[in-house]
């Protein structure tokens, strides 16, 4: 995943904007529709560095990440994370001069191999991601000295996802092939990632079919390597409203 909020503008990005305006395609998707991306994101996804990571979604979409929007552009998803008291930026927000704005600093800077090394929940709705983060923040435990760390604050990351072959729980054949290789007692996770006991293959299939609960199965250690061996790189879940 790549964070989208950096504000530094490179020479390459300036060239992309200039050329896009001259060609009449600035802030448009390749299909001619208005882009769903903001100005920063529109430029960012067209840089060489981004395409080296995500794949050339404009020219060779079949070899790029599958996580794109209805226009075929890289889809921005949002991850909300709770903020402890010691992570809140002092004096953030608008200052008394009415001109200066101090933003909330990101509480950490990496997902892969860092604080978030497992399953990462995202949403296409930024406010939904923020609401989840703020709810979770209210249950943050005290620190080791007994000082309260709970807040009602959250930080939302805008992210891209590089997944060339995401596992889709709605693909019944893909699910069955993996379940058949897991035996008669399949471990699942509890809501908070702890041990949740075992289920039968039939119950496991029900979990994956329910959409909301498929992560209880697909995040277990025995499931991920087997889906990985089938070249599946990620989990695509559409939840019901």
Observed structural traits:
single chain; about 240 residues; alpha+beta; 3 domains; about 30% helix; disordered N terminus; disordered C terminus
Summarize this structure briefly.
This protein is α+β, with helices and mostly antiparallel strands. It contains eight helices and seven strands, in the order βαααβββαβαββααα.
Describe the overall structure:
The protein has 241 residues and is of the alpha+beta class. The chain folds into 3 domains: 2-63, no CATH class; 77-160, no CATH class; 172-229, no CATH class. The chain is 28% helix and 12% strand. It has helices at 11-23, 39-44, 48-54, 126-137, 172-180, 201-209, 215-218, 223-229, and strands at residues 2-3, 77-82, 93-94, 101-102, 154-160, 186-189, 195-199. It has a 3-stranded antiparallel beta sheet. A two-stranded antiparallel sheet has the order 3-4. Strands 6-7 form a two-stranded antiparallel sheet. The model is unreliable at 1-6 and 225-241 (pLDDT under 50).
**Count of individual domains:** 3
Low-confidence stretches: 1-6, 225-241
Helix content: 25-40%
Give the strand line-up of the largest sheet: 1-5-2
Mean pLDDT: 79
Largest sheet: 3 strands, antiparallel
Kindly estimate the percentage of residues that lie in beta strands according to DSSP: 5-15%
- Spatial separation of the terminal alpha carbons: 26 Å
Structural class, judged by helices and strands?
alpha+beta
Give me the number of helical elements: 8
